[in-house]
Amino acid sequence: MVILHIKRGDESQFLYETNVNNSVDDVVRDIVAIFNGRLKVTRICYEMEELQKHGTFLPLEMQGLTEDQIKDLKLEDPWAKRCAPVGYIVSKDEMGRRCGLAPPPNLQDVLKKAAETAKEIISKKHVDLRKCLTQKDVFRALDELRGATKIVFPAGLPPHDPVRMELDNVEDLSGTQAANEVIDPSRACLWACGKKLLNGNKLSDHLGKNDKSKVTVKLCSASEGAPGREPILTEDERKQLMLQAYRKQEEWKKLEQDDDDSYLDSKWADGQNMKRQFHGLNDISWKPVLKK
């Protein structure tokens, strides 16, 4: 099986294992699903942090309003008490986005641990560990988050809550930065070795038939154009090379500054030392002859 090191720009994303006989279309579709799935998990984990602190999402018409404005307009959140967790605590949201009926500390830990587990499942650290990512891993992370919300909020979440919308795949990302990060599967493409992998071809048409190789590929949208080529040296290799050059430069500086010739008195600098050894003239002590 060939290993594809998936990058978005210059940033590593995950490793993907496939067969060179698979079509480019199927591979691109699968990779995009994993990439977008990881983004979904990340968005849910962010919203889950707010969910555990301040409770469920307010209706859109109530968001950003002060308590006095809500009273003047006679607005009410019909979902706050209905969806509140058992033993909830009041924790006001200064941003005015959530109802303020937060889970108790023990249930907050359930949401927190679920988010940490989900992040670990899709972590970019798996690239260094040489562990490949699949759609099953993404589904496992989503199931972890879904199970935690059901435990903490047995009555469910409001239909307009971002966590529920994400889990139900009805999220609306229009006008957000997250919308720019998601890749449209119909416009996605892969680049390897400075060349685009063409739809309708097999991977072997571009990567060869060696099924035991590792290739760095970049995931792009068709509207972005060709990505930059991979550098000849990795960042760590470049740092090591610069460090060696610096050390060598410092050694030359020390040699230029050192004008001491005392080393010439050492045995290893004596050109006649070997000759005396052959003739047995080393370590000869001279004593004065006493006359009688």
Give a summary of the structure in a few sentences:
The chain is an alpha+beta fold. The protein has eleven helices and seven strands. It has helices at 24-54, 67-72, 80-83, 105-121, 125-128, 135-152, 162-167, 177-181, 204-207, 235-257, 273-278, and strands at residues 2-8, 11-18, 89-90, 101-102, 188-192, 195-196, 214-221.
What does the model show?
The protein is of the alpha+beta class and about 290 residues long. The chain has eleven helices and seven strands. The chain has a five-stranded mixed β-sheet. A two-stranded antiparallel sheet has the order 3-4. Helix 1 (about 25-55) runs antiparallel to helix 4, helix 1 runs parallel beside helix 6 (about 135-150) and helix 4 (about 105-120) runs antiparallel to helix 6 (about 135-150). The radius of gyration is 34 Å and the shape is elongated. The N and C termini lie far apart (about 100 Å).
Low-confidence stretches: none
Distance between the termini: 99 Å
Strand order of the largest sheet: 2-1-7-5-6
Shape: elongated
Which oligomerization state do the chains in this entry correspond to?
single chain
Strand elements, count: 7
User: What integer value in Å does the Rg equal?
Assistant: 34 Å
Order of helices and strands: EEHHHEEHHHHHEEHEHH
Strand content: 5-15%
Query: Strand pairing plus helix content: what structural class?
Result: alpha+beta
Largest sheet: 5 strands, mixed
